UniProtKB/TrEMBL annotation, chains A, B, C, D:
Protein name: Transcriptional regulator
Annotated keywords: DNA-binding
Classification via Gene3D superfamilies: Homeodomain-like (1.10.10.60), Tetracycline Repressor, domain 2 (1.10.357.10)
Keyword DNA-binding: yes
One matching Pfam family: TetR_C_24
DNA-binding region: 22-41
Presence of the UniProt keyword DNA-binding in the record: yes
Source species, domain of life: Bacteria
Example of a GO MF term: DNA binding
Domain HTH tetR-type: 1-59
DNA sequence: GATGAATGAGTGTTCATTCAT
DNA sequence: AATGAATGAACACTCATTCAT
């Protein structure tokens, strides 16, 4: 029952927003009574916190798995991470949207905890970037924090517009983002492109 | 008075969120009574709509100015647009955050109108990109819509974390974003870099 | 309206008790809506506090008047005070019962304030007793605090059983209490005791 | 288990009041579940009734013992009764406070029964006083009912303020009360009464 | 004897909104 | 232009109680 309440709440919070979703809405959807809701959750806010914790903890766990794979370059890790985020939209898109939209309804203590987790995620990404720079995979003339904020902004926003059942495949989206992030959108001059080609060849060999 | 209500509402909606800000909060801040509020606004929602309209219309107007400048390349127009957005954080950050967070509280008709404006902004950007591609300024092997969504995600998110009074200057932020967008973060191989240099020289000449 | 709410609330709190009286009960009695109640009172508890403050402040004011009358002996002042309490049952009996029964529903801060006032009332009575002892009006071999607690217990309980419209007149009740109290705590002179007999004899004849 | 529930309930009802104590509070304190509570008690109100019945029945039984002691004068019986009440504060103070505060939460039938017992206790005391008057132990010019209400008010209130572990010993409290009461209602000796007249005359002049 | 999931009526409270003045 | 008393629907939440196991 607890699980069902969580699931339906996420649905409704995604569809209508936290403040416009009443406990009544939730229990009506499930077909139970108020008492049942409060048997499983102390308050509406605690339910929201639960959703947040579930989401960020799973995300951190998945991030950890990717980061710990020693056979991957930092570039590849970043690619996999973006892929992870995009591919999760289908399964966890609702949670993700709730997570990214409704955290303002948490109280101060809850918010602090969630923001610590958020930061943890960002800092790890930053470290990934930093290591990649040291290894010569990434440029060393950009502020890491800004770059990461930029990448996260770009990728995370997908939750708000990307339809996994639409005409753009997940692969194309991931590849496009990675391409922009790695190479930029500027058209290279001929010579540059040639060399780029060589590099690419050299690289993939 | 109307202006004061708008101003204080934006402040409060930014600080506490739309649903957690009551009319009472607003009028207490200003020091008037309920009747006054309803003399100037039909409803709380109409006030929110007003804020949205003011924001998006001004943004579109400023976009228009930049786009109509025939002395700028598309690359430069994009740079100026990003600069516009970042520099607006100091003056219009509150409005922007309200605009990007609270639109879910508009009713269907209002939301449709706002979304049309939003789309107009995005489509214009997309056209800018498209023209740039035709002129050879930008790569032609990426989907325009995805690229624009990516860029907007990256830049717009700044409203949520960027502190214009912090250690990063607006110029640095704009340049970093433009650099990532145009060139990417991948470290170029020597030969590539050399050619890049040439391009840059060629470019600035 | 505020006054009406106060009045009807006291009635209901006296009749049914604070916790069993709902806001709904109160507004139904008056014929207004919930909003009206909350326009005048921040909460049910604040209403209760208001009742308490009104009651104790008026009581203290009346105590003050009696105490400041310099033409009265301490014995007479005590008599007048008891008379005041008993005679108030008709007009303020409901308030008094609410005051003496429902204070446990106040929160800690409210309760502290009310208890300070309560204590003030008691301490003043104690001073009255102390002065009377010094002037030889009362016995000096009893603890003032206990005596006052005893007197207050005796007199205050009347709110719970005394019916001002019943067969016992207010005068008789006051006189009986004073008689019990005075002839108990009054310093008996040897000679005095002898003469008392004469009166009694004379009286009963 | 039944006993534990009773004990903890009295504790909680004394500390927080009946209406503010939930079944949940009670079972949490004991460490059992709701079912257990309802296995032993039909309802919360029945539990309250149980507490009331236990209390008043024991009190009546103890009253009975004192009253049936044929070696005691009525004066002594009254003294012992007051002593009984005061000394009980240490052991039964919580029950007594619950009994004197929470009876309003009983339903009509329960309340009627409890009030009958209460009355029985009072009437017996009144009879004790009446017999004492006949035997010349107490004054005969005061209404018995009022006197008993007064005495009970005085003594019973002790439950609300008297701390058996404080600086005033139980003996001192009992003696003070008895002193106040007895020397008030006690029939004065001949010689003593004669002198009173003189004082009074002297006084009013 | 004891569990604990589920009930559902009821509670205090909030708040956007109206309207006579 | 502005007031502020009054509305009333909605809300989050509580809690004594039931009952299948």
């Amino acid at each position: 029952m607890r699980g069902r309440i969580l699931k339906e709440s996420i649905d409704l919070f995604d569809k209508k927003g936290f403040s416009k979703t009443s406990i009544q809405d939730i229990i009506d959807t499930i077909g139970v009574t108020k008492g049942t809701f409060y048997y499983y959750f102390k308050s509406k806010q605690e339910l929201l916190m639960d959703i947040h914790l579930n989401y960020i903890k799973e995300l951190l766990a998945e991030q950890e798995v990717i980061f710990n794979d020693e056979y991957l370059s930092n570039k590849e890790k970043m690619n996999n991470l973006i892929s992870l985020i995009i591919k999760n939209i289908k399964i966890h898109g609702k949670s993700a949207r709730v997570f990214n939209r409704e955290f303002r309804h948490l109280d101060d203590n809850q918010l602090k905890l969630i923001n610590d987790y958020r930061k943890e995620f960002r800092i790890k990404l930053q470290k990934l970037l930093g290591e990649g720079i040291e290894k010569g995979e990434f440029r060393d003339d950009l502020r890491c924090d800004i770059v990461i904020f930029g990448i996260l902004g770009m990728v995370n926003r997908s939750y708000n517009w990307y339809d996994p059942d639409g005409e753009v495949s997940e692969e194309e989206l991931v590849n496009t983002y990675m391409d922009i992030i790695l190479n930029g959108i500027k058209k290279e001059e001929k010579t540059a492109l040639i060399n780029e080609k060589i590099i690419e060849n050299h690289f993939t060999v």
